[in-house]
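Margin note from the TA: students keep mixing up input and output lines. Inputs are the sequences; the output is the structure of the whole complex. Example:
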Amino acid sequence: MGSGNKQTNYLLGIDIGGTKLAVGVVTPEGRVVAQERIPTQVEEGPERVIARLQGLCHAAVTAAGITWDQIRACGVGCGGPLDPECGVVMNPPNLPGWVEVPLVQILADAFGRPVYLDNDANAAALAEHRFGAGRGVQNMVYLTISTGIGGGIILGGRLYSGETGNAGEIGHMSVVYNGRPCNCGGRGCLEAYASGPSIAARAREAVEAGEPSLLLDLAGSPDGITGETIKEALLRGDPLARRIWDETVEILGAGLASVINIFNPRRIVLGGGMTNYGDLLFEPVRRIARARAMRPLAEPVDIVPAQLGNDVGILGAAAVVLERLESRAAEVGSYV
Amino acid sequence: MGSGNKQTNYLLGIDIGGTKLAVGVVTPEGRVVAQERIPTQVEEGPERVIARLQGLCHAAVTAAGITWDQIRACGVGCGGPLDPECGVVMNPPNLPGWVEVPLVQILADAFGRPVYLDNDANAAALAEHRFGAGRGVQNMVYLTISTGIGGGIILGGRLYSGETGNAGEIGHMSVVYNGRPCNCGGRGCLEAYASGPSIAARAREAVEAGEPSLLLDLAGSPDGITGETIKEALLRGDPLARRIWDETVEILGAGLASVINIFNPRRIVLGGGMTNYGDLLFEPVRRIARARAMRPLAEPVDIVPAQLGNDVGILGAAAVVLERLESRAAEVGSYV
């Protein structure tokens, strides 16, 4: 960088998670110039967390060797529900105590730059579409599968966000009628079967019911069972881990078949911690989704891993800015 | 009308169904000036059916008191799968023998007018959005529930048709994991529970299994059970009809909750023969869909009956033309 750099189109990407805060200075091409991370310490409440977040933003700008004048705008990715138009965080499950926080106003006042907010799954979808596994694709569905399942929908090359900015809750598509209760209050949602904690819970219940399994040796106790222990047991040929995993990929595959039938997408991108299972996940899920989807819709789609790894939060927040500026430009016709 | 009418922006709406052909001359405002209907007689094969269809089109133009010069373009609504871009009907289940029929080419050659093709569910969605229950709404999902379940998706005020023109197969969203086999080859699809024949089949199976019911008296035999006999039994308080119906509206409600969570739409429009059940259908389905959907997404949506009745086929085909012309205009920027 150095003081000679006068580029004024940097983006500040701000990723607010339940466990960590990450901030990065990003170029419009998706290069992360500098980044800073600290634990969220969500128990401190929104005021103190936001104060520390502001410090982190200043630190990232300094680390990038630039001044705030060189930041075109800031993007924020945060757990939903939120109101992207008003810039208000409503009451996300992963940020207890954050009730109707006018985050965009607070940060815009603090930094004197425009600020744009969207939920973290939409942000990640935008980043994968612009910089990662969805480049060049017009119609793409993104799913992040980790402690929950979030989704983001890119249609005709643009984020589809719905009537009030909350579209894409594909994790809360009901896949097992009157099935397991879900965190959302519903039943039988995809998230209630294919998220990390749901898989661990189903394995734990089976072990507690007395089904013999390596899992108990690996985890020490039923409560110790995690995605990692299941993966290990699976690789060692444990029948219980195999049964739970087979059921998981069947249900996820059936869910993706529905996504294919509904959206007729070109590509489905899967991100989040669960994709660390690699081919154990992708091979069966691809096969099952294609077999269950309608033939003319199964043909044009591919199901691929996300590419941006740990940078997806920061890049996603930056992509929110680019998407908002471009949509606005398209609306007023400056594109044509 | 009369020979003094020189208006040149009429649309010819052509609706090709498995049981009837309907053609209408339509104004851009959605007024049907003249219409003609005949049975399809699908057993005659595509060549003879298309020859009779052409005669029907000429009859409609004559009945409207206009000449072909006054038709701006023709729209065709037809069962899918089809290729809307190439104008080819692939192999619709309701038109046996129609394999890769280049319908747009045939009709454009015959009439010397531009011809646009889309599937009947998309066409109906466009008509309801433009002329019926979806007027003024940006984000709307349309479902037609009759012998099958078709869907059409309007997002940002435009038809969303997916990567290869086949999006919107909401009837083939899997709602009961590994449930009843569906016509599409999948299992547990919405269509396998909430379409007319599926409801009748479930009632028939229960009667055949020996469950006592008024249905047998009303229908004469298990094979005689139809949507009408189930409705009659339901109104007379028959417990079996009630159980089948409650299950149907529960599953349909759960399916619509998924639609709400995925699309965050402003409105869901339900059409097709099943909506003749009226409040027996709409009251519980509204309640169940809202209760099962995520709160911030359940609030902005309403679930309403389609408004266009028997004209939806002709108006839908006409709306396909208007949609195609306007999308093209928007693409080349003549709108801005």
